Amino acid sequence: MRILLVVNPRAGRGGAGRAARLATEALRRRGLGVRVTTTVPAVGELEATADAVVAVGGDGTVHHLLQRVAGSGLPLGLLPVGTGNDTARTLGVRVPRGGPGAMARAAEELAASLRGGRTRTVDLARADGRWYATILATGLDAAVARRARHMRFPPGSARYAAALAGRVRRLPAYTYRLEVDGRPWEFRGLLAAVGNGPVYGGGVRMCAGADLGDGLLDVAVVAPVSRRRLLRVAPRLYRGAHLSEPEVTVVRCRTVRIDAETPSGGWADGEPVGPLPLTVSAVPGALTVPLPPGAPAGLARLSR
Ligand SMILES: Nc1ncnc2c1ncn2[C@@H]1O[C@H](COP(=O)(O)OP(=O)(O)OP(=O)(O)O)[C@@H](O)[C@H]1O
């Protein structure tokens, strides 16, 4: 079995090189062939030279790889060394925290999953041809994603909270025009988030009910709120407990067209996707991921 590690030296706080060395050792010890690269190969080259590919980086690294592996059946493993690591959280992959021991454990787990050879498929979303795994942000959250991308401090997922704090002085209200499975829906909103998975922004569970195996998108919209109210509710976002608040509405659908005059357009997996309008569809089973050897039966349920 040939594994290609795609390493992003810019991810997180620069631990990607070390993580890649640990993963290489762990994989070779299990008899797997390993190649390491810092550039994402074209899809034909990937399929011809690798039996599985691993993203050693954060959500941006995974996002760039999704554009190559989605729909191909080529398994994508993760060694999450980014800032937010929301795709890893979504897929139940351990995010190494607490020094070298944690990184070594994550590398061993990854190698054991790939060696085991069991995989499952999960849904992806596609926004005007761009694949993503987590959530497409628009409105306030797109502005937060844009700001977080240009910040170097604080490290880790606290960066998104800091970016939000910098955006709450004047909260926007946009006129949104959605088509949800063809049905028009117009409202004034602070943001609208289109979730394939439940989480973005370093652990914010905006679309907490999103299921990677249901073939559906969870569209969470938030009505305009005061700064005071937002700051009060914000901590609940990390538990998904905001969903019962009166300003929050969630609808499930296969396809949504989303339009609003916002300055930041759409951002998915922490990356810019483009200006609105965007049409997003759920694509069932588009991503194949390795399954840990002791994975519970509940995960295998997602295999198609
Ligand atoms: N193949 C690629 N081509 C161009 N840019 C890339 C590629 N892979 C990653 N990047 C860029 O590198 C930057 C940092 O990578 P990444 O997003 O993986 O780490 P991070 O920002 O620390 O983590 P996270 O996204 O989890 O918060 C991102 O802006 C991303 O767009």
TrEMBL record:
Annotated DAGKc domain residues: 1-132
Name of the molecule in the record: Diacylglycerol kinase (ATP)
Enzyme class: transferase
Provenance organism: Allostreptomyces psammosilenae
Any Gene Ontology CC annotation: plasma membrane
The family this protein is said to belong to: Belongs to the diacylglycerol/lipid kinase family.
EC number of this enzyme: 2.7.1.107
SMART domains given in the database record: DAGKc (SM00046)
UniProt entry tagged with the keyword Transmembrane: no
Any Pfam family the entry gives: YegS_C
GO biological process annotation, one example: phospholipid biosynthetic process
Entry keywords, A to Z: ATP-binding, Kinase, Lipid biosynthesis, Lipid metabolism, Nucleotide-binding, Phospholipid biosynthesis, Phospholipid metabolism, Transferase
Signal sequence coordinates: none
UniProt cross-references to InterPro entries, sorted A to Z: ATP-NAD_kinase_N, Diacylglycerol_kinase_cat_dom, Lipid_Phosphate_FormReg, NAD/diacylglycerol_kinase_sf, YegS/DAGK_C
Required co-factors: Mg(2+)
One term of GO molecular function: ATP-dependent diacylglycerol kinase activity
Keyword Acetylation: no
